[in-house]
Amino acid sequence: MCATCGCDDHSRTIRLEEDVLADNDRHAAHNREMLAARGLAAFNLLSSPGSGKTTLLVRTIDDLRGEAEFAVIEGDQQTDRDAERIRATGAPAVQINTGKGCHLEADMIHRALHELDDAGDLRRNGVLMIENVGNLVCPAGFDLGESARVVVLSVTEGDDKPLKYPDMFRTADLVLISKADLLAHVEFDVAACMSHIHRLQPRADVLTVSAKTGEGLRAWYGWLRGRSSAALAPATAASNMAESA
Ligand SMILES: Nc1nc2c(ncn2[C@@H]2O[C@H](COP(=O)(O)OP(=O)(O)O)[C@@H](O)[C@H]2O)c(=O)[nH]1
Ligand SMILES: [Mg+2]
Questions:
Q1: Which among 54, 55, 130, 151 is the best mutation to test ligand 1's pocket, defined by most ligand atoms within 8 Å of the CB?
Q2: Which helix H or strand E contains 128, and what residues bound it?
Q3: Rounded CA gap, 72 and 83, in Å?
Q4: Ligand closest to the CA atom of residue 182
């Protein structure tokens, strides 16, 4: 009997967790090789449900049309509603339903990559967007082989979320504070939120955006270009951006 939590075999639980994560890391490394071989930049979008990930992806694909070739992997517990929203833009999308699972794992991404590849949808030097399952806890622990992690936090969720879900924000390369058009209607202190984020991850970039009004999207596209130089050519950027703010 484990003295810490009273379970039958605590050490076995920890060993199993370590095995699962080590196995995931092996698949993630393989995904990274596969993406690098094709010159693809891959972004893992993480957030709680409803923060605006799919809406932002749809607008990004529309605004950067002609500049970048996007492919999308959608993670959800059930339904292919988000993949359908992406396909409506003309971009290819593979839906992964995790069922009882609360996060995407690297081997799921590996299978989805092959599905996209077999269909001829993994364009050389393109951009792969991975929308993770809405959850601020579990997805933080699973490397998918992405180039960078983008955590989306909407202003309706409260500025204290980085403090409550530190693992998620500690692994962020970029935090998008979304639904900025609602700032006038909710109590959300952007400066305080940024300070919480930077205490956890000093190197994280933070941008305030609204997929509805277009506020901050120029900076988001600039960040994407910086992280996927082969895929997004700055020379054609200005003509394709529909910044309204
Ligand atoms: N006001 C406002 N609503 C938004 C914005 N982005 C998304 N939404 C709304 O938020 C809800 C959830 O959006 P969705 O993209 O499905 O979130 P996801 O679950 O993170 O993919 C929908 O009702 C969207 O219309 C935004 O920038 N401003
Ligand atoms: Mg979604």
A1: 55
A2: strand 127-131
A3: 8
A4: 1
How far CA 84 is from CA of 45, 53, 87, 89, in Å, comes to: 18, 14, 5, 9
CA of 64 to the centre of ligand 2 (A): 19
Residue 191: CA count within 13 A, CB half-sphere = 0
Give the integer Cα–Cα distance in Å for 191 and 196.
9
Q: Which domains does the chain have, with CATH numbers?
A: 14-229 (3.40.50.300)
- Protein residue with least CA distance to atom 13, ligand 1: 52
Q: What is the pLDDT of residues 64-114, one digit of tens each?
A: 999 999 999 999 999 999 999 999 999 999 999 999 999 999 999 999 999
User: pTM value?
Assistant: 0.89
Cβ burial of 116 (10 Å; 0-12, 13-18, 19+) is: buried
Supply the DSSP symbol for 89. Answer: T
Query: Considering only CA atoms, which of 233, 191, 204 is closest in space to residue 69?
Result: 233
